[in-house]
Amino acid sequence: MAMSRSEISGLYAITPDITDTGRLCQMVEQTLAGGVGCLQYRNKSADAPLRLVQSSALLPLCQRYQVPLIINDYLELACQIGADGLHVGQDDSTLPAIKDRLAPHKLIGVSCYSQLARAVEAEKAGASYVAFGAFFPSATKPNAVRAAVSLISEAKSVLSVPVVAIGGIDLNNAASLVARGCDAIAVSQALFGAEDIEFAAKCFSRLF
Ligand SMILES: Cc1ncc(COP(=O)(O)OP(=O)(O)O)c(N)n1
Ligand SMILES: Cc1nc(C(=O)O)sc1CCOP(=O)(O)O
Ligand SMILES: [Mg+2]
To answer: Residues near 26 by Cβ (< 8 Å), separated by ≥ 6?
Structure first.
């Protein structure tokens, strides 16, 4: 089995809270066919058994397209299924704890909100990429802290790890973030809520 990509770049798809695993896999396969560069399994309403079933179903799909599967929040789930990495925020596992459990080649992403200093610390502590946001109002995460688009250029001038932008990103505003130099855009609703998911993924991917 060929290795998936090791760097985060281009379109970074974030799964919506969908209970029907078959439907979720169908939608994810459309994003993969459309050129997504990375997939994150994020479900804030599923219980542990459903998270295990759904993430286990997504892994072979991602492997077939050589796209890394990142698990949001749950370190033990990422270890259990052999995911390609983990994404954590301020209330999740710390980097030292993650480094103790995940194999060295696994990807570790860190939410940095609007805080450049947090990203500098995360890079020093061994993060594979950092994410800033929310750059625009997000129905998926309405209470997200807001970040100014100028933060992307500032972050790119001081960080060496890939910079991911997130929050309310759609096909009307994504170019403004890519123009600032972000390495990837993390999208949920504007991708999975599209009438033609594969075409939407192609449109986002063509921005890079
Ligand atoms: C790429 C990326 N960036 C941010 C998040 C946010 O994660 P979430 O668990 O919703 O919130 P925090 O724990 O970061 O506060 C993400 N999932 N992916
Ligand atoms: C999961 C998440 N984290 C955010 C942050 O700012 O840390 S915003 C967000 C929601 C992303 O979904 P959508 O593309 O539908 O807005
Ligand atoms: Mg989290």
So the answer is: none
Measured CA to CA, the distance from residue 208 to residue 202 in angstroms comes to 11
Q: Is the ipTM here above 0.90?
A: yes
**How far does residue 87's CA lie from ligand 1's centre (Å)?**
7
For residue 184, the surrounding DSSP H or E stretch is strand 184-187
CB atoms within 10 A of CB 148: 10
Looking at domain 7-206, which of 3.40.50.2000, 2.60.40.1930, 3.40.1170.60, 3.20.20.70 is its CATH number? 3.20.20.70
Atom of ligand 2 nearest to the CA of 42: 1
- Choose the residue to mutate in 39, 41, 172, 188 for probing ligand 2, maximizing ligand atoms within 8 Å of C-beta: 188
d(CA 208, ligand 1 centre) in Å: 22
- CA-proximal residue: ligand 1, atom 8 (nearest): 89
* Radius of gyration for the chain, computed over Cα atoms and rounded to the nearest angstrom: 16
Give the residue extent of every domain in the chain: 7-206
Tens digits of residue pLDDT in 92-132: 999 999 999 999 999 999 999 999 999 999 999 999 999 99
